[in-house]
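Database export, one record per block. Field names are fixed; values are copied verbatim from the stored entry.
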Amino acid sequence: MFVFLTLPFFSANANAMPSVEDYAALPEISQMVISPDGKRFAYRQTSKEQDLIVVRDMKDMSKRGLLDVSEVKPFGIDFVDSDKVLLHSQKESYIKGARGRYDINTVAAYSVENNQIHRLLQPGFGIYERQRYLGWIVGISPDAKEAFMPALWEKDKFSLVSASLERSKRPNRKLNVPTDTIDFFMDDTGEMLAIERYNNETNMHVVQSYKDGKWVTIYEQEVEVRLVGFTGVTPDEQALLMAKESKETGRWAYHTLDLETGYISAPIFAKENRDVERVITDINGKAYGVEYSGFTPTYEFFSDTLNQKVSSILDALPNQYVDIVDFTRDWKSILMLVEGQANSGAYLLYQNGAFTKLASKRKNIPAENVHNVVSYEYEARDNWTIPSLLTLPNHKEPKNLPAIMYPHGGPESYDRKKFDYMAQFFASQGYAVIQPQFRGSKGFGAEHRFKGKGEWARAMQDDLTDAVNDLVAKGTIDPERVCIVGGSYGGYTALVGAT
């Protein structure tokens, strides 16, 4: 495969040095998605003055839709077809008959052509009134007129309902399911394939396939804590993707569970040196492949052709964090958010062997103001290897620099080699920024994560001190000019460090 790079994606501009407000501002462009046919794309555009959903035609970049979402504040967007856009949001509200206020998850459908928006499910409007989670879509009808969503039809009566994507109307009951159902799996025609259940009283974890109008158990295990998970339907719709921990590597591996026989395959998606970060699915829950963890992601798919295509994309974008954010049904068009060296964030469309830049995520931070991030490893005092990131200020020799230790939160989280607005701001002020992936961090294997158990303020804290000592020994930082800052668990480490 030949990849042609025909334009400067990450070009610099002549702006003055970005201010602290520029670094701290929300990205102007975010949540970009592409329509299933590849003819349109949509994104959220945020500024001090406005908060909009913008829909454009791919052919001429003309605006086709513009919606004020300052009240909705969506955290996610999906296309159903080229006309209908789904807005996922959460709002604090009262529930009739209950004390206090609750976070209510909802989803609304926006018609680009009619410029109209309506909520798909509303408490008390055809469904039980005391519900909080009404934003879960498990499938779309083939004609794109209905969304299939779990809801309480009445108190203690759990159902799959069909909600209109065209106008506000009462939902219809599609299928009754047991109240202990925790997930649903459908085919492309909108028919049920299987459900996953877990009963908190009996500790039974069960998967049942739907055959000839009956539920047939294909997986069953009695456990106090679920040891496996099911995420998506395989592309051929013959199996579910099943995650469980590998006894050999201690990492999570993905198998398939055959919907007809219950047969569990050997590991399909598994690596010795990386964890599965996420399963790549479409709006109908079709699982195409996985993203593996790491400072920069890698991908693996069921399709060999798709593996080759994505591998070529990554090769064409060296020193960049390439996040696949959306794709067309045929995968001929792939939308990516790309961040990294000399790049504060750009949405790129890959199509027919070439890239097109659709938008910059942070237009006020040009290429020359993105500071270099390097990955490396060092040995802790007990000889345990710690992966780490180091952001170095541009145009300064990496010797005897003032430094900021900036541990991540979680603590079972990890940093990535992409644009970190705080690390980049600190570097703009001349500091080296250290981000160790101390023991207890995920993304580097189960053993590394489990090494942090019981080690708050102990070995986990020593890993931070050892990172400083390592860079002092190398001459990179000045031991007299080091501080520590963080949020969440990182804030805890800052307090412990000061103590």
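Remark 1: Confidence is low (pLDDT under 50) at residues 1-9.
Remark 2: The radius of gyration is 24 Å.
End of record.
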